[in-house]
Here is the input.
Amino acid sequence: MLLEKLSNACGIPGREDEVRALLKETLKDQVDEIWTDAMGNLIARKGNGPIKVMLDAHMDEVGFCVGSISEEGYVLLKKVGGLDDRVLPGRQVWLTEKRIPGVIGAKAWHLTTADEKSRAISFDNMYVDIGCRNRAEVEALGIEPGEPVYFASTFEHYSDRVVKGKAFDDRVGCYVVSRVLMEFDHPGLTIYGAFTCQEEVGLRGARVAAYNLNPDLALAIDGTASSNVAGVEPMDTVTNMGDGPVLYLAEGAILSHEGIFNELIRTAQDETIPYQFKRATGGGTDATGIALQRGGIPSCSLSVPCRYIHTAAALCNLDDVDATVNLIHQFLRRVEKGDFRP
Amino acid sequence: MDLAAHLAELTRLSSITGRERAVADYLLRSWTDLVDESTLDRLGSYIGLKRGQSSVTELRSLPYPGPETLAGRPGERAPGPPRVMVAAHIDSIGGMITAIEPGGFLRFTTVGGVDRRLLMAQEVEVHGKRLVPGLVGSKPPHLTGPEERTKLQPVDQLYIDTGLSEEEVRSLVAPGDPVLPRNEFRRLQNDRISSRYLDNRASQAAVYVALQELQKLKHEADFFAVGTVGEEFGGLPGAVTSTFAIKPDIGIAVDVTFAKHPGSEHDSYPLGGGPTIGVGPNCTPKLAKIMRQVAAELGIHYELEVMPGPSGTDAWGMQTVRGGVATGILSIPIRYMHTPVETLDLADVRAAGRLLAHVVARVDQALVEELRCY
Amino acid sequence: MSGKMLERLQRLTSVWGPSGREQKVAAMLSEMIAPFVQEVRTDRYGNLIARREGVAGGKRVLLVAHMDTPGAVAINVSDKGLIYLAPIGGLKPFAAIGQRVVWGSGITGVIQHEPVEEAKEVEFKRLFCDIGATSREEALENVSLGDLCTFVTDLQQLEDLIVAPGLDNRAGCAVLLEVAEHLVETDHEVIFAFTCHGEVGPRGAGAAAYGVEPDLAFVVDTTPSGDLPRAPRVAVRLGGGPALKLKDGGYMAHQGLSGIVRSVAEAQSIPLQIEISGGQSEAQVVSAAGQGVPTAVVDIPLRYRGTAGEMINLRDLYGSADLLLKLLDQSLTLM
Here is the structure.
């Protein structure tokens, strides 16, 4: 399954090569044209219609890179993207594209002081042990400052419809956009699947892609946080995994394009596709970066709700994924028929 | 001109963010023989063009008139030789006068990341109608409680004492006038220099070295040496707008980085150990690789500088301009950054300049295509 | 100068338009500026662009004023029908408590805060809007999640002083209208941009400047006045005339253009205050647009920013318009 391959592929911001290669291989025979731009965004064009639509999903994931190597052969990390220190100790990681296995160690519980027991381990005190005995052994493996480090989690099905894996933010978006490109024809449109770089460090690839493509409208498809879990009041869950695609009321303080936002809601209602609102305003997606390009590009975010994103392993409900694919397809049909113009 | 003398001239000039004209004018004058053409752009950034060997590019053709419908496909670029832009920001941190108090005492605010720990009793110069020297004063110690003495005073409680009468001060100084730390350019042992504003005049010195080296080299690419305004404060307006106008294929930011000294071990690099080459999302991997190859061939020692997010350099702005630019970062280690006694090793400046020149000479059409090929 | 400033302020402060929902403001401004310009259009971002033709040899000058106000967005509804909010733009929870607000649909309500022991416990996520609904369902019939509200408008005049919500930056819009009306002869092509999303980011002005490609720009906005108890040490006061911004949290004044502003004010005996402030202004995104736009900011001093009782002095508005008109008489050549 493509989502499995995408989740298992590795790509920190600026080093999205594996994900890009996988998508290129998957899509090259299914689309009319495929290319990479100066920043490394992968663009897949399908159709040649008069209305240009950009479907954005970012390829990169949060992770680490090698900061330095100690004389004793430990590897010190730097975070790439936003990660909570508490979810890191005790995780297994892969170093470099060669996937050299390592572990993020932690001092034995027995040896910690009472004070240390009650506090989260600080990132400054974490390191990766790959079994080497000194710096030279580490360097001999091709590990040097800047090389990528990933969570070593493997995709699996918890049930028929609920899957676990790393990097669902935003491989689930890459999966949704790939499916829209592969499963449907919209001859009235030029659809650009834009698989972008460096979202996690500032929505950077999407801006460049949007400038280049200059679409009439854009949707940014992402994975977003859900908290419908034990102990959280229904009003505080932000989004609910299993309740359908997520529309953003506001990202940070920025509003989605009103016309697209309303049309997505109408489409969902008319086609009885479930949808929900993100009931918080933090964070931002590629849509905020796209919206400001050139003289402004009408753009809107649509997300798949996932639990535990920005950790080693997240959960995702495939019903939400299917509903998102369907909602995009139905929305594109309306654009194609001329029922809707931004 | 001798490199140290060039650097001494550059650090003598006032160039706080927003008031960079003195450095820009100096570059116009002192680099004339090294470039084919030069100008200041609309925001005041210096742009010098050294043409590729068969190039007919002219600065008056900026902003780059390329078609706006390019979809960023490989091979989609306008004719003409490849363009390499090097950005070395010409602004500096400093202060700005906000008000004149009774008695002629001057209130001020900081511009950019000034180290507030060093302000008390610092010698400064106010660039008003003429240069007015002064001292940063604060509430005297015998009126300061023991607890207060361990704390830093907020900048708006500090003032500058020029020793002049209020009338004289008002005739010489107005709100908005720049304030600079007042310091002598010093040559230390072993070809090391200490001065104010080595961040970022050291990088202009490196570009100067590169331009001299390029006189001796053949290069196909057009080389744009840019002194950008506005790096220390705000959204990198100088880097973004000059990149927009030039539309380079490759953009390299030259800046300073932290050199090791007691208390600064992590994320710091040896003074005299050569420049650093950036790695991270802001540095196009293939370009970083080429920079490393060229350094190895020239026998220039370098360190890798890991930049996991925003690089804090002009390259962060350059990378996402228009349809994207392949970017690299070359940094010169300095000690005591953002203090009036920044310290560097001239060998690092020379090495950075040489490396830069040879990277430029390496750039041809094929390499540019290769950089876009992921 | 005409006496139309007050009338314009009355109209402009009465129209609903929080960040992202500026269409009604744009429609009103479009109608108000049409008699004075050759072309009015809306760009893709939603900015209203009005163009007055110039003659050969003149420059293309962009005048910018954002037209949005802060507001709040409905993000949750409780079982009891109380609407929970998130801020849009710089709305502070203290400024909202006890205020009457109006939603886009015209429905009104009052904003209150969950009971707290201490003032420091006040936070935006515990604010709610009561529209008189008795259940979640009833509330959602009148206000959908994602709808926006702003303060109910109410303009009062105290001699030269005007008090109303949203004077930041409808006052700036009024100044641009005044300039458009009185601009008789100028060589310059003058483009008036009433921008979106000025309270968030700011954002719209960047897109406007990118599309217009001006030679230089003046941003007209408001700035907090410093003539108040325990205000930060800034020199700007109400009634002291327009303020020229030298620096804020993300912008350093363009030296050449601000020099021209200072010398014109001096030559024309227009009182000019000097402003150095925090925060961010549209000048940051305008100056970095495209190949770069030399930009100056002319600010109107304002008290109690972001509250339902913002206060300005009419004389500062006339002073700002006067200054801009005199500037447009100049050749505006930058060295």
